[in-house]
Amino acid sequence: MNSKRKQRLLIVLGLVSGFGIAVGLVMFALSQNINLFFTPTQIAKGEAPSAQMIRVGGMVADGTVDRDPQSLKVAFDVTDFDHNVRVTYEGILPDLFREGQGVVVQGRIRSGQFVASEVLAKHDENYMPPEVTEALRQSGKLDQMMGGQK
Amino acid sequence: MGWRWFHQWGSPRWFYERAGRWQLVCGRLALTLLITGSLWGLAFAPIDYQQGNSYRIIYLHVPVAFLAQALYAAMAVCAVVLFVWKMKLADVAMQSIAIMGFAFTALSLISGAVWGKPTWGTYWVWDARLTSMLILAFLYLGVIGLRAAIQDPDQAGKACGILVLVGVVNLPIIKYSVEWWNTLHQPASLKLTEKPAMPASMWIPLLINILGYYVAAAYLILGSMRAIVLERERRSAWVRELVSRA
Amino acid sequence: MIFEPIDIEISKLSCERDDRLLFKNLSMTLNPGQILRVAGPNGAGKTTLLRTIAGLFDIQTGTIRMNQLPLKECLEQILYIGHKPQVTKDLTVLDNLKFLTGSDDDHLKRALSDVGLKGYHDSLVKELSQGQGRRCALARLWCVKAPIWILDEPYTALDVEMVKTLDTRITWHSAAGGICLFTTHQPPQSLKYTTLELDHVT
Amino acid sequence: MSLERRMLTRELKLNVARPGEIFKPMWFLILVVSMLPLALAPDSDLLSEIGSAMIWVATLLALLLNTEHLFQSDFSDGVLEQWLFLNRPLAWLVGLKLIAHWLFHVLPLILITPIAGIMLSVPTDVLWALLVTLVIATPALTCFSGLGAALTLGSSRSGILGVLVMMPLFVPIVILAAGVLIRAMDGSDTLPLLALLGAFSVVAATVVPIAVSAAIRLNIGGSN
């Protein structure tokens, strides 16, 4: 049956072109910054929109954590080793929060400061016993590893 | 001749008898593996430099999360087998996998929440990986619900098969969500292609546990498949004979 | 109008539903002009057989071929009228038939007057009586060009006069070389047909 | 008259005969939207912030409401099984039905969302984003909920089940649409997310009619 074969051909053509269009659209979308996730460098360059809820990821810079002894207020720098962003937060920090720890903070930029509504500690896929960490730290390899992370 | 092994799977009786033996093997193996892996992981593996002891939940969370996704893929394979070879046993497998898959997904969500509180500071975030896991749980629920709503088992099986195959679209989204969206959830700890990012004393018990949970899932699924086969074949001679003997 | 010769070849057809064997190893050939009544008690599988031949049920074992082609390729050669009304209540008689047959208005109005629904073409189907609704569904027999008719209980809810009209129409169809399969519990008087008793098959 | 025209004419006439089917979801949408300020304090800042998301969710629910029985009446009066004899692939006919459904039931819903937007004092540019996301996303939503309706055709106590079964597939669409709305509120670039939404709809429109036709065939095979 000729018409049957023609119909089948049309269906296959439709499927192929549908998937083609979809793949094209996805490729376009992935070439753009899609997830409102910014690094401190991008923020320093002013690429992040202000007053909008964004997420910033990086390390808590050493020696920058100021805790207010009276309240739960805390301020710290998030760094990607090029630029720092000052983050203020009020609330209970997760256990994993410490200097040198990777964090993701969610919040808005208000007058040059990042006001976080949520601080989440990001742990990496590396699991190791403390002795190993110690050994690494002594040999200076840990910083190398951490630096290599971002 | 080469196809005989394949056609045997069409016989419910053959399956019922064989599966009983396999189940026994799986049960023993699972018990051994899980006891070894869990004891090793929980008591003897070294603690983590960042998370202390709380990381030990990976010995539950990781295997269970693996299984939750793998079972969906297994269900999709069963759906394909059902449509291509019209094999009723594939439908039986789909039915038991749906329930087990939901159970494992729920377990991975719960263990993840318990782990998330000390490490991330929250039980739940609407992050892509977690959300897609939740969607997976809903997909399993949908398959279970659809089957429950349609009376004729053959028809219910095929309807579930269609739903499962359409839901397969979701699996890659789950798989790649971590890479697509820069999320909180760490990348997978174990990859087949790379050396694991943890010392042997940590990953060997994890591997044992993963194997253990897989075999345990096989044990549970075989058991429920046998029960379903018995129920569906209740009018056939061999089941009646079996019952009268018991 | 005369149909091109068409035959249906059924071989070794078996069907099992809800663990009950309805028919087994059913083989027969239907030739142009043949009228076949499928008979048997309730639950013998008459509807199942008709729906299988119409391609609505999957064939479990056996084959059905039309002019040597598999059934699935030839569904447009079939006109099937089943138990369900086959018409939509919220549409007019004419709109219903127009969708199902694709015939033009004049042709459809002629068909309607043949089944005694003259002047009803603008009525909604829900305004008709049950028998009139049935007539509306059967009006398709007067305008479709399909050579194979599969009619499940076509005589239900019809009065004596309409039964006669339907018999005549089926006879014409057979004379034109068409095939007709039907089921009924009251054997029609004015129709020459062969009978397939489903209970003898098993 | 071609079969395609016959099909669309029939859908049009059916909708003229059953206007309730079109107006009920619209009424539902307006009802939800007018309940919201009553349930919250009528604080227009808060309203305009969450208003667009609320309208989106309400439109989604209204759409589910009218797709739930998409094939039910055709199935129960036996017209659906006649589709198999129409000399066209079933998936193509299903596609036509879905297109008709979108035109006659979903589009009117989208067209009244500006009224809902004004009721919740949604800013104009967000309102535009809302309309665009709805136009792009609703084909996928219609397809998926149509599949749910088709899968549960044969079950006597299906009710809302078809919609619940399909819910997981709505989630990514809702997330993407919400992303577009949030960005529109901040005035940032919405194009990449709209592209993803479009990809979803295109894939759904190509694949789902095939799945729906399989589900319909299945239910026809199961009914007596």
Strand order of the largest sheet of chain C: 6-7-8-3-9
Oligomer state equals heterotetramer
- DSSP summary: helix tally of chain D: 9
Report the end-to-end length of chain D measured between terminal Cα atoms.
32 Å
> How is the main sheet of chain C built?
5 strands, parallel
Which chains share the greatest interface? Answer: A-B, 30 and 27 residues
Tell me the fraction of residues in β-strands of chain D, as a range.
under 5%
Q: What percentage of amino acids of chain C are in beta strands?
A: 25-35%
Main sheet of chain D? Answer: none
As a percent range, the share of helical residues of chain C equals 25-40%
Helicity of chain D, as a percent range: over 70%
The Rg value of chain C, from CA coordinates, equals 17 Å
Order of helices and strands of chain C: EEEHEEEHHHEHEEH
List descriptors.
heterotetramer, A: 150 residues, alpha+beta, elongated, C: 202 residues, alpha/beta, 5-stranded parallel sheet, 4-stranded antiparallel sheet, 26% strand, globular
Describe this structure in a few short sentences:
By secondary structure, chain A is an alpha+beta fold. In chain A, 35% of the residues lie in helices and 29% in strands. A five-stranded mixed β-barrel of chain A has the order 2-4-5-7-6.
Topology:
The complex is a heterotetramer of chains A (about 150), B (about 250), C (about 200) and D (about 220).
Chain B: H1 4-8, H2 12-44, H3 58-85, H4 88-120, H5 128-149, H6 153-167, H7 170-180, H8 200-232, H9 237-245
Helix pairs in contact in B: 2-8, 3-4, 3-6, 3-8, 4-5, 4-6, 4-8, 5-6, 5-7
Chain C: E1 8-17, E2 20-30, E3 35-39, H1 46-53, E4 61-66, E5 69-70, E6 78-81, H2 93-101, H3 105-114, H4 130-138, E7 148-152, H5 160-175, E8 179-183, E9 194-197, H6 198-201
Parallel strand pairs in C: 3-8, 3-9, 6-7, 7-8
Antiparallel strand pairs in C: 1-2, 1-4, 4-5
Chain D: H1 3-17, H2 19-39, H3 44-67, H4 72-76, H5 79-82, H6 90-119, H7 124-151, H8 161-186, H9 191-222
